Task: structure prediction
Amino acid sequence: MKIIMLGAPGAGKGTQAKKIAEKYGLPHVSTGDIFRANIKNGTPLGIEAKKYMDEGKLVPDELTVKILLDRVAQDDCKNGYILDGFPRTIPQAEVLDKALTELNDKIDYAIDVEVPDENIINRMGGRRACLACGATYHVVFNAPKKEGICDACGKELVLRDDDAPETVKKRLDVYHEQTQPLIDFYNKKGILKEVDGTKEMNDVFNAIVSILDK
Ligand code: AP5
Ligand code: MG
Result:
């Protein structure tokens, strides 16, 4: 099964993708997590990506597409994967489509997690992220067992550099301009599924499971 998670920054794509990955035994592939791991390790890719991410802009397609195609060509992606944060532009979606078609393959579902901008701004200030394993928490809605420490891997939780309110606003603008058109793109392909992302996390998850288990 190949799944794309769509939705605004902070809609809960990462939160849900992790849960789906666990339940269905699929790898969770997040381009944002890949970039953040590279930034943390000071790689040339990380240094380049950080310039864009800190401003709330998208990393250029040429760079992003290559990273993603390399990642899904790895062995653990043979039986499927969940893409979180990719594609984010129509050209990225077209490249993915072409690569899959060449393999006689396709995406099964594009799940759009819908959350209005007002809710997003409130959520982001409370988010805490683990840069080691990609787990995401919220100080109110999904607190870790021990404050500041990742339940999954025991590493320190941080506030993401791009979660400052001004940067979140910029990311939302970029989302509406460049990423939202993908909803129409996948709707036309007949694989778009929408879920209400303002609901409680487990309710959102159950809505997604009922789509995937149909
Ligand atoms: P990326 O890491 O993908 O960030 P994003 O899309 O902005 O999304 P977020 O990770 O901020 O939000 P999310 O939807 O995963 O929400 P989460 O589950 O954490 O990308 C970062 C940057 O990298 C981009 O800006 C860009 O520069 C670059 N980049 C990445 N991919 C790229 C690409 N393909 N092309 C070009 N550039 C790319 O949830 C948010 C918070 O809300 C958490 O605290 C969570 O606990 C909480 N929460 C979740 N669900 C609920 C709920 N139902 N109720 C209450 N709280 C909830
Ligand atoms: Mg995320």
